[in-house]
Specification:
The complex is a heterodimer of chains A (about 240) and B (about 600). Chain A is α+β, with helices and mostly antiparallel strands. Chain A has 8 helices and 7 strands, in the order ββαβββββααααααα. Chain A has a 5-stranded mixed beta sheet with strand order 2-1-5-3-4, with helices on one face. Chain B is an alpha/beta fold and about 600 residues long. In chain B, strands 1, 2, 6, 7, 8, 9, 16 and 17 form an 8-stranded mixed beta sheet that branches. Chain B has a 4-stranded antiparallel beta sheet with strand order 11-14-13-12. In chain B, strand 16 and strand 17 form a beta hairpin. The longest helix of chain B is centred in the last third of the chain and has 25 residues. Classes of the chains: A alpha+beta (about 240), B alpha/beta (about 600). Chains A and B meet through helix 3 of A and helix 3, helix 4, helix 10 and helix 15 of B.
Chain lengths: ~240, ~600
């Protein structure tokens, strides 16, 4: 890869000095080693240190650098810069309050995650060694436990945009099913009660935006469907 | 500037594995605890650990903690303290089983037990053959662990201060530690966290190197704060270069790949590790493998147009094994190396990965410093655990999977020690000195008013390049000497950094400038300690300390079987003895021997 320049249009807003947000046009010269969108953002920040965004692991496991990239949510560190049509339009994740530039306030997102009791519940005294679980039962957790809480999914979901305080959202529901599916967890009916509500679970209309944007290739819609099946099964 | 004050029983800085494990201990004991973290807890760098956590559960091959202790002491090239190593290896089963009880989704054996895989340097029967000791959740063990620990803390109602950066340690005239000053990123406000006990769990500083597997946040904040507050740093010359970082990108490829059968090959396709480590081959200790790879590349047997990497080959493994045991690695290889490892080998190079040294502690997690005749006198109110600490269990070279174990064992023990010290009345809330926040406020004020200064970006780049060139996998006297002069120059420039962004709100430019202050302390400590140590040991290998009968592998036990202590003030060095005695009387010490694999 050679030196090349990339054009950006970036959402900027610093409440300390800007009356309102604006889109900034800016071009950056990339080094041959710059391959991902995050590399380009770091390069940009070397030029203008006021550009603010979260980032950490730069390999798609910490979930810090989620943003809206050319209209679609994704992780900057997993997005190849050369594949993006220019100007590359960057906005903060939609549906959450903007604190500054590409940084959003994720309070509501984590509140919903916490609301599903995201921890194993098993009040039996634990054995001296590990609780046993068959490889098949463990397999049920694949596609669920890998979530990195980046919020790409929930902030791509219209139901979450309209009711972020009432609808748990795809990330929270994926976590809810991760514990429902775990043979070591004993709070199935408590967990289902917690979700039996016109909003918390049932605002999902299976439009699958969450599946479309998940940078880890997970499928919250399928997990939500399985929770709905469990609701039906216990009603009959 | 007004400074708000908050008071706690304990303040923990850092919410990675060590911080979260310590927090659990305190929350469950009902202590009023604040956990400060620069990033939301599940974004801490523990999340990136891949291959597993060591414990001699013996689920698929026979194992016991004595063998684990032997491997760890040998891996450390005898620089590890044997009391701390015994403590860690004996505690391993307990802390791993606890984690399973918290809900961690370990892979399973057919009988439903925790799945274990072989890993570098871990052996059966004192070095005889590889053992399956690494407890794994696919190749996402750190992610699964960090989330399980965070989730358990949600259950325990732990109080987090998310996106707060600790700035400086507060000590009184007696040297007792009283808490930290910290910056709330969202508002730019500085507060004092006043506490009976302060636990540092701030992770490593792998970002001092240009080519690093580490996250951007790994800037050695706790290590830097401790150094500025007069605490010496131990064994900072010892840095682990992980054999398999993706060439060009630095992203980690777990040793678990070789644990599952992966093979390193040079340009002619040769399995070169057979020549360097006839017994354990590709599963030799990390320092040994990294040096072998570097030698292959230096001698012209590297791959690619510039002959500057070697290949990690798993094309002979069944695709199902790769999909089941190494799914994350496949994603990384496709994303960052542009190859599907099912069909093509992955280009890899040794990459800076782990800081063996750090803030000196004992096995209880207490920070210890020389005082009078005692080389290890506890600092009242100060504790540390995980990568920022040096217990010392890793000595001159850490074994894979012992870092996740370290943070569990010492996260827990530091938490337990704090609970005991507070409950026994040994730790009271001491009065804050009037100048408690001055050091932090002065650093911020200096940044605000700096004119015609240096760019944080440029100074950081110069530091990383200097470290890479002068203190790499192999070390040379002339390069080290030059490196010391250069890094002191860079440190001077770092005192004049200037930021363009003056906003109070989420000012990441300010955060990066403050982080650079910490990185610089670590870089200086590393270069100066490395220049001084005139022997080869573990990860520190000098061309002028070759293998001789008196000095096996260049290791000079007569003169250098001792821990380095670097003091920031005066940029001076001191040394203290290595503890060669295990913790319990019945445990046999591991006698000094030449290290071969």
């Amino acid at each position: 890869m050679t030196k090349r320049s990339v054009q950006f249009k970036i959402y900027r807003y610093d409440p300390d000095k800007d009356e309102k947000p604006y889109m900034q046009d800016i071009t950056v010269e990339l080094e041959p080693s710059d391959k991902k969108l995050l590399d380009a953002l770091v390069r940009l920040k070397g030029k203008d240190d006021s550009l603010s965004f979260r980032r950490s692991c730069r390999e798609g496991v910490c979930g810090s650098d989620a943003m809206n990239i050319n209209g679609k949510n994704g992780l900057a560190c997993l997005t190849a810069i050369d594949d993006l049509p220019q100007p590359v339009v960057l906005r903060p994740l939609p549906g959450l309050p903007v604190i500054r530039d590409l940084i959003v306030d994720m309070t509501q997102f984590f509140k919903q995650y916490h609301s599903i009791k995201p921890y194993l519940i098993n009040d039996n005294p634990p054995p001296e060694r590990e609780r046993l679980q068959s490889p098949e039962d463990r397999e049920e957790l694949n596609g669920l436990y890998e979530c990195i809480l980046c919020a790409c999914c929930s902030t791509a979901c219209p139901s979450f945009w309209w009711n972020p305080d009432k609808f748990v959202g795809p990330a929270g529901l994926l976590a809810a099913y991760r514990f429902l599916a775990d043979t070591r967890d004993e709070a199935t009916s408590e967990r289902l009660d917690n979700l039996e509500d016109p909003y918390r679970l049932f605002r999902c209309h299976s439009i699958m935006n969450c599946v479309d944007v998940c940078p880890k290739g997970l499928n919250p819609t399928r997990a939500i469907g399985k929770i709905k099946d469990m609701m039906v099964a216990r009603a009959v | 500037m007004t400074v708000a004050k908050r008071t706690f029983d304990a303040v923990i800085v850092g919410a990675g594995g060590a911080g979260l494990r310590a927090a659990l201990q305190l929350a469950e004991a009902g202590m009023k605890t604040a956990v400060l973290t620069k990033v939301f807890p599940t974004r801490s760098h523990t999340v990136a650990a891949q291959g597993g956590v060591a414990a001699s559960l013996g689920n698929s091959t026979e194992d016991n903690w004595h063998w684990h202790m032997y491997d760890t002491v040998k891996g450390s090239d005898w620089l590890g303290d044997q009391d701390a190593i015994e403590f860690m290896c004996r505690k391993a089963n307990e802390v791993v089983v606890e984690l399973e009880h918290y809900g961690m989704p370990f892979d399973r054996t057919d009988s439903g037990k925790i799945y274990q895989r072989p890993f570098g340097g871990h052996s059966q029967n004192y070095g005889q053959m590889p053992v399956s000791r690494s407890c794994a959740a696919a190749d996402r063990t750190g992610h699964a662990m960090l989330h399980a620990l965070y989730q358990r803390n949600v259950r325990a109602n732990t109080q987090f201060f998310v996106e707060w950066m600790a700035l400086d340690l507060i000590r009184d005239a007696d040297g007792h530690v009283l808490g930290v000053t910290a910056l709330e990123m969202e508002t730019g406000e500085v507060s004092i966290f006043h506490a009976k006990a302060t636990i540092f769990a701030t992770g490593g500083a792998g970002r001092i190197y240009h080519s690093s597997t580490n996250a951007f946040i790994n800037t050695g904040d706790g290590v830097g704060m401790a150094a500025r507050a007069g605490i010496p740093l131990e064994d900072m010359e010892f840095w682990q270069f992980h054999p398999t970082g993706v060439a060009g990108a630095g992203v980690l490829i777990t040793e678990g790949v070789r644990g599952e059968g992966g093979i390193l090959r040079n340009a002619s396709g040769e399995r070169f590790m057979e020549r360097y480590a006839p017994n354990l081959k590709d599963l030799a200790s990390r320092d040994v493998v990294s040096r072998a790879m570097t030698t292959e590349i230096n001698e012209g047997r590297g791959c690619g147009p510039d002959k500057d990497y070697v290949l990690l080959d798993i094309t002979h493994l069944a695709p199902e094994t790769i999909m089941k045991r190494l799914p994350g690695i496949r994603e990384i290889a496709i994303q960052f190396a542009g190859v599907d490892p099912i069909k093509e080998p992955i280009p890899v190079v040794p990459t800076c990965h782990y800081q063996m040294g750090g803030i000196p502690t004992n096995y209880k997690g207490q920070v210890v410093v020389p005082k009078g005749d005692d080389p290890n006198a506890p600092v009242v109110g100060f504790y540390a655990a995980g990568e920022c600490a040096c217990a010392s269990v890793h000595g001159a070279n850490r074994l894979g999977t012992n870092s996740l174990l370290d943070l569990l064992v010492f996260g827990k023990s530091s938490g337990e020690t704090v609970v005991e010290d507070i409950q026994s009345g040994n730790l009271a809330l001491r009065p804050l000195p009037a100048d408690a926040a001055d050091a932090a406020l002065a650093r911020i004020a200096r940044l605000e008013s700096q004119k015609n200064g240096e760019s944080v970006f440029d100074v950081g780049l110069e530091m990383r390049r200097t470290m890479q060139k002068h203190a790499g996998v192999f070390r040379f006297d002339a390069l080290l000497k030059e490196g010391v002069a250069k890094i002191l120059e860079v440190a001077e420039r770092a005192e004049r950094t200037e930021i363009g962004d003056k906003s109070k709100v989420w000012n990441t430019a300010r955060v990066e400038a403050l982080e650079l202050d910490n990185l610089i302390e670590v870089a200086k400590a590393t270069m100066v300690s490395a220049e001084a140590r005139k022997e080869s040991r573990g990860a520190h290998v000098r061309d002028d300390a070759p293998d001789t009968p008196e000095c096996p592998n260049g290791r000079n036990d007569k003169e250098w079987l001792k821990h380095t202590l670097w003091y920031s003030e005066g940029n001076r060095l001191a040394y203290k003895p290595v503890n060669l005695n295990p913790l319990n009387e019945g445990t046999e010490p591991i006698a000094l021997a030449k290290r071969t694999y």
